[in-house]
């Protein structure tokens, strides 16, 4: 977190992920005076001001002008309207801790907004594109980042520290972010979907609603903790539960017959394909 000390951090778009970053940064000791926030929605502004005891601007231009690191956390469909007014404030030099001048780092978390799309509109500005996920809201997120061509090692370290405040971060080439979107960006919904159908199946076996919900959720929580703590591959842990000729083996055989692995792989391919389709909306023609 030291790389963020002394910087002014601006968040434009104070929705779910913007608030998760605020929470994480404050928890890591970043002072309120170093944070600038903007959101166009008056209800969101009031909520954030009350929840985080921070002033929230209606217009992002002042936040962009006064920040060393700017997180663009508005919805993807808002970028064509939101970015042009910010451009002249983001392409100006910002004063660094050492007294030199450099342009602020801009981090985008919007699915489908490519680095190339932003590079055309923010020439010369260091850019990092990040794909976070919803568990960042409870400090257990997974984020993949891809750096633009003018982003330095320090810029990448700033982005890693920013999202390290709310979870785990890896750095990948931008071409792999569609796969990350399918695996971890959309991933929480797969878990919630599993929890829902698992609870429904438990109730059909005769368990009361409250008991079914508690059994499923605690089993999910404990299993994930064990998977992380053990360091063992998932296959080894399956073998520890599924004894030969036992109940678990009977259940797993049904899932195999129903081609669950193939269906799940197909679902991820569909999510990755859709991510590429969304990104294509923002591609810049060559020539």
List low-pLDDT spans. Answer: none
CATH topology of the largest domain, which one? Rossmann fold
Number of strands: 10
> Architecture of the largest domain, CATH level 2?
3-Layer(aba) Sandwich
**Tally of structural domains:** 2
Highest CATH level, the class of the largest domain: Alpha Beta
Can you say what the CATH homologous superfamily of the largest domain is? NAD(P)-binding Rossmann-like Domain
Beta-strand content bin:
5-15%
From the alpha-carbon coordinates, what is the Rg to the nearest angstrom? 22 Å
> Average pLDDT, to the nearest integer?
93
The percentage helix is 40-55%
What is the string of helix and strand elements? EHEHEHEHEEEHEEHEHHHHHH
Which structural category do the helix and sheet elements fall into? alpha/beta
The count of helical stretches stands at 12
Tell me what you see in this structure:
It is built from twelve helices and ten strands. The chain has 287 residues and is of the alpha/beta class. It has two domains: 2-174, Rossmann fold (3-Layer(aba) Sandwich); 187-275, ProC C-terminal domain-like fold (Orthogonal Bundle), CATH 1.10.3730.10. The strands form two sheets. Strands 3-2-1-4-7-8-9-10 form an eight-stranded mixed sheet, with helices on both faces. It has a two-stranded antiparallel sheet with strand order 5-6. Strand 1 (9-12), helix 1 (16-27) and strand 2 (35-38) form a beta-alpha-beta unit. Helix 3 runs parallel beside helix 4. It is elongated and about 70 Å long.
């Amino acid at each position: 977190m030291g790389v963020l000390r002394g910087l002014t951090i601006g968040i434009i778009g104070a929705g779910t992920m913007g608030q998760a970053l605020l929470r994480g940064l404050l928890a890591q000791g970043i002072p309120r005076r170093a944070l600038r926030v903007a959101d166009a929605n008056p209800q969101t502004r009031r909520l954030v001001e009350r929840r985080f005891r921070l002033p929230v601007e209606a217009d992002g231009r002042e936040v962009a002008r006064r920040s060393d690191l700017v997180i663009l956390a508005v919805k993807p469909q808002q970028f064509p309207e939101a970015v042009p007014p910010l451009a002249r404030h983001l392409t100006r030099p910002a004063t660094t801790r050492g007294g030199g001048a450099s342009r602020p780092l801009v981090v985008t978390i919007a699915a489908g907004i490519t680095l190339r799309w932003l590079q055309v509109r923010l020439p010369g500005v260091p850019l990092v594109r990040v794909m976070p996920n919803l568990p960042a809201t409870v400090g257990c997120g997974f984020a993949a980042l891809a750096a633009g061509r003018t982003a330095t090692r320090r810029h990448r370290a700033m982005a890693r520290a920013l999202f390290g405040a709310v979870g785990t971060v890896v750095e990948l080439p931008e071409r792999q972010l569609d796969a990350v979107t399918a695996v971890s960006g959309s991933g929480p919904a797969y878990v919630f979907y599993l929890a829902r159908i698992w609870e429904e199946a438990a109730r059909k076996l005769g368990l009361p609603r409250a008991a079914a919900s508690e059994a499923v959720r605690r089993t999910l929580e404990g299993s994930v903790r064990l998977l992380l703590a053990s360091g063992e591959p998932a296959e080894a842990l399956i073998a520890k539960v599924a004894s030969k000729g036992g109940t678990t083996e009977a259940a797993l055989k049904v899932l195999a017959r129903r081609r669950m692995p193939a269906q799940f792989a197909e679902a991820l391919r569909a999510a990755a394909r859709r991510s590429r389709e969304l990104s294509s909306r923002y591609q810049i023609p060559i020539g």
